[in-house]
Amino acid sequence: MPHLRLETNLPRDQIPKEFPMELLQVFAKTLGKPEELSVVTIVPDQIMGHGTNEEPYGQATLMSIGKLGEEENIIHSKVLSDKIAQLGISPTNLLITFNDMRSLLMLELEDSVL
Q: Pick the catalytic residue: 2, 20, 56, 91?
């Protein structure tokens, strides 16, 4: 189940009610995964220190089994940062971490066999 978690210092009232579902559609599409199996979590009101300004900031963690890699992540970053920019978070103030859960699952399987 692909999961995108966005933590931001934006107040909750600045995130439109429909935004999580809109982001979910963009997220699922860029990964080529079904929307019904994808999850987006937005965590507003975070106290965050970053850089030297007080502009809106976000850090996102994207987890997926496959569909990630150097070239794919560049595309995912562009697509997601363009959508998240609608909240007023500049792409230069957005950090996205990619976690391919396939390698984690393989590690768990290997550990359970040993």
A: 2
Name the one residue in this structure whose structure tokens are 């850090």. 59
**Whether residue 107 has pLDDT greater than 60:** no
The stretch 6-30 carries a mean pLDDT of 98
What pLDDT, in 10s, does the model give residues 27-68? 999 999 999 999 999 999 999 988 878 899 999 999 999 999
Cα angle 27, 90, 18; round to 5: 45
Q: What is the pTM for the complete model shown?
A: 0.89
| Residue type present at position 2 | P
- Is 2 an active-site residue? yes
